[in-house]
């Protein structure tokens, strides 16, 4: 059963130099996530370069991840499609192939109205028994899922969680005040991770966790145990890295960090290309400084 809590990495998709899926390296990263104590794995998000993946590749990634995880944590698939029909098909296929849950974006490439967006979400939710997290990111996807819309979505019992990425962490309190525990709330912005957990977020859909799983899980566990000072020590060190997540080149940034920690490569799929020139040097300098000063972690697994 899917429990909506904790750190859930939105994992990157690993490619070879020949632009094929690199399942060996991908599995190495997934194993590192599990060892660090993450609470779930999310496939096919923005970080996973989902828009460049074929349907067979998505199916292969899901089946491969389920095999690697071996039931230790739930595996979720992100749904980001241009049509309701395609989104329903993707959701049903994910359920057939063994996904434990879904993360659901609003309609892609079309700025749907509130009514259209709610209708889209309901149609997908009603097509599957899988539990669903709604991804609320108006900054990047230009559609705001309002409290009134979440009120309407309560009729779908399997819509159970929200990835809150409005950049306004007080929205977490508004959601909790209005709906209590009807929806579990995850922060979706790395640079607001600790603050969001401290004011009541149930979990963290994280990005830099792809390269630094132990540090991310440690922050979550320490905050939930009330050890804010210990968590803040790690978070202060982490912040320059976390800022790499709030960039149009977040995929390239995070893959460079994965390369530095030995659990990834920097291969991306075109039209994305590896970072070049001064920007590459800037990002590498941030990563190098962080690696030189990587903190000793508290025994967070015993909390």
UniProtKB/TrEMBL annotation:
Q: Among the record's GO biological process terms, what is one?
A: N-acetylneuraminate catabolic process
Q: Which GO terms describe its molecular function?
A: N-acetylneuraminate lyase activity
Q: Name one GO cellular component term.
A: cytosol
SMART domains noted in UniProt: DHDPS
Cross-referenced Gene3D superfamilies, in alphabetical order? Aldolase class I
Which of this chain's residues are annotated to bind pyruvate?
205
Pfam families given for it? DHDPS (PF00701)
Q: Which domain of life is it from?
A: Bacteria
Active site positions = 135, 163
> Which UniProt keywords are present, listed alphabetically?
Lyase
What InterPro entries does the database record attribute to this sequence? Aldolase_TIM, DapA-like
Q: Which family does it belong to?
A: Belongs to the DapA family.
Q: What is this protein called?
A: Dihydrodipicolinate synthase family protein
Q: What species does this protein belong to? A: Croceivirga radicis
């Amino acid at each position: 059963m899917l429990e909506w809590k904790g750190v859930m990495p939105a994992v990157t998709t690993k490619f070879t130099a020949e632009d094929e899926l690199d399942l060996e390296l991908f599995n190495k990263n997934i194993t590192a996530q599990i060892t660090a104590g993450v609470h779930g794995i999310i496939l096919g998000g923005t970080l996973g370069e989902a828009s460049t993946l074929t349907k067979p590749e998505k199916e292969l990634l899901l089946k491969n991840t389920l095999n690697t995880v071996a039931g230790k944590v739930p595996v979720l698939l992100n749904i980001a499609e241009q049509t309701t029909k395609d989104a329903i098909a993707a959701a049903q296929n994910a359920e057939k192939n063994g996904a434990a849950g879904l993360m659901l974006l609003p309609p892609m490439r079309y700025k749907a109205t509130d009514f259209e967006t709610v209708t889209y979400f309901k149609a997908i939710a009603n097509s599957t028994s899988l539990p669903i997290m709604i991804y609320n990111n108006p900054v990047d996807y230009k559609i705001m899922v309002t409290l009134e819309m979440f009120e309407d979505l309560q009729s779908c019992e399997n819509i159970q969680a929200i990835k809150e990425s409005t950049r306004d962490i007080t929205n977490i309190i508004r959601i909790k005040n209005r709906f209590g525990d009807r929806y579990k709330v995850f922060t979706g912005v790395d640079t607001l991770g600790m603050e969001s957990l401290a004011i009541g977020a149930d979990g963290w859909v994280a990005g830099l966790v792809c390269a630094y799983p132990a540090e991310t899980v440690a922050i979550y566990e320490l905050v939930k145990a009330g050890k804010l000072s210990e968590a803040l020590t790690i978070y202060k060190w982490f912040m320059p890295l976390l800022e790499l997540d709030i960039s149009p080149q977040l995929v390239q940034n995070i893959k460079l960090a994965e390369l530095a920690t030995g659990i990834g490569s920097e291969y991306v799929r075109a039209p994305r290309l590896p970072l070049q020139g001064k920007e590459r040097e800037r990002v590498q300098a941030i990563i190098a400084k962080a690696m030189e000063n990587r903190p000793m972690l508290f025994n967070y697994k015993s909390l």
